[in-house]
Amino acid sequence: xxxxxxxxxxxxxxxxxxxxxxxxxxxxxxxxxxxxxxxxxxxxxxxxxxxxxxxxxxxxxxxxxxxxxxxxxxxxxxxxxxxxxxxxxxxxxxxxxxxxxxxxxxxxxxxxxxxxxxxxxxxxxxxxxxxxxxxxxxxxxxxxxxxxxxxxxxxxxxxxxxxxxxxxxxxxxxxxxxxxxxxxxxxxxxxxxxxxxxxxxxxxxxxxxxxxxxxxxxxxxxxxxxxxxxxxxxxxxxxxxxxxxxxxxxxxxxxxxxxxxxxxxxxxxxxxxxxxxxxxxxxxxxxxxxxxxxxxxxxxxxxxxxxxxxxxxxxxxxxxxxxxxxxxxxxxxxxxxxxxxxxxx
Length: 345
Prior knowledge:
The protein has about 350 residues and is an alpha/beta fold. The chain has eleven helices and four strands; from the N terminus they run αααααβαβααβαβαα. A four-stranded parallel beta sheet has the order 2-1-3-4. The mean pLDDT is about 90.
């Protein structure tokens, strides 16, 4: 039960870090570390209890492998759906690529590790092949671990209940369709309206800041179309102050703060986006020096896998230096072991 010690340590780190600021990606690392250590401790305890429980553990491992195959098939199917409904783009291909990677990379790693050992290839070639297989395994585990930390904590953070009435509601833009608000963006606006209308009578309603500039393929700024929708749903014109110059989420947050300042509403801010985008928006708000928290709105089920993968890739790119150090450490570790095994005794 020694693995309970890291589980407790990770749990304490998670609670402390979460209380200091819920908008930290490391909260997800601590949470997954605690749950993973607890799960592994439980599995090892069961395996040591009896032969029957050992068989159950092996069956669980086999079931996990089957679930990976099921997940791969689901992602491939979702990728095909995304291409049909949303068109061809790299973002829409992500779930298809992830599904194929789940099928190909484990098979490649197993082939590199076990196949050369049964051949008459030189010992050095066999060693290098095994090293490459191990490196693929480590890379897969790193990707799985970081995605689990991001994905699981995204779900946890998106369920966070913000009970304080905000002074301003910033609604992040997400693109127009023929100049009009599409369903994805409408869900964000409807969530903001629900919060706006929930303010008790006699209390100042929050400022509504629909935020988004004009893309190259858009006939007008997103903020203008979003403001039009809010007004059509009964929002008070004096409460709607669109931001129409931003071209990214970071600019959404920074320029919307300037709109709040100009309107004299620099108090607490609540940012509204879709569920899949909540954690990254919160990380960007923190990086921009804003104390804003973020809430999410529903997203079409078929769109969620690709959307989460896009957010994960974006976060990994934003933390590319840290990831480069981690990957380089893995490569260096495997290379060192390989060199040691190839060195003459």
